[in-house]
Structure formats: C-alpha cells, structure tokens
# Entry
Amino acid sequence: MVAARIAAIEVSYGTIGAVDIGFVRPPIFDTLLSLLSVYQETCIAVVPKLHPFAQRASISLGELSTEQFILVERGIWPSWYDDIISKCHDAGFSPVIRQGVKEIQTVIGLVASGLGISIVPRSTSNFHMRDVRYVNIEQEAPRVEMSLAWRTDEDSILVKQQHNSLNAASIATVKITSC
# Structure
C-alpha cells in the first residue's frame, strides 16, 4: 500500500506497520524507519490584502514582531511550528499567537478575515484568495520538508521502485537547481 501523510502526526513503526511506503514531514525519530528527503520549501508571509506589508515584495522577519499570528498547531506539524518560533526568536521576538488551527486553508481564511498574519510554505500561494497577499521573507525564512518513509526491513519491489524513482528525481532536481 502507498500512503501520503501530509500532517506531521507522530509516526512510528507501529503506526505504519501496514503501510509499505509513505510521505511524512520530518523529523521522524524511529530507527525502524528509513527516510529520503524529497522536497524542501521556503516559507513566506501571508497578510490581509489591506495590511501595510501587502504592497511590499519582501519583509524581514523582525518586522512581524508586533503582529498577531495565526499558525497551524504544533501538534499537527511540530517541525514547522518549532522552526517558525525559533526563527522569530532569532529575529528578536516571541510571536503572539492569536489562533492555532489544524489546516493551512484555515490559516489563509483567518488571515483573509483580518485576524492576523501567518508564515506558510511558498506553495500555499497557489491558493488564489483575493483577500490576502503573499510576501517574501528576507534572509533566513522558516522551511518545510517532505520525506519518503518506509520500514527499514521492507524489501518489496514497490518500495524499491518508489525509492529509486524519487531518489533519481531528487538528484536531477539538485543538478538542475545548482546550475
């Protein structure tokens, strides 16, 4: 069975015992699982369309210090949440979290309604909502990662084919982007 897990819910050998291979959000701390990083993405800020930052091409993370944040809950995606908090601390502030939610789409809706701002993966800008603007974060922005996970003792042909295919695609992407 092939599975995709978008939310970072605790993964262990026991939870994927019936799954041959799947996508996870690292980190995963289980020696019985093998991981291959297949995608990394930089985050951007999302603000209401009438916000002063909405017309800017980029902002520094420190400029968000007085804002109220809408974030995906730590229990849903711990590594991303922790990276946002860490990068905010590095920029000299602790973010004021107005609302924690379970899905990125909810984050965007709450930002659109003017309840706060957020930091989201760049691909989220594909949600073309009229009432928000996406703004690049200068310097060291938070990042998200997607990895392929499989049981280390798994030797099925499906797992080998998926691993080889994604490994080749990852190598090709690195070669293309490093030119």
Remarks:
- Residues 40 and 145 are 4 Å apart (CA to CA).
- Strands lie at 2-4, 21-24, 33-48, 58-59, 68-72, 96-101, 118-121, 132-137, 143-151.
- The chain is about 25% helix and 30% strand.
- The radius of gyration is 18 Å.
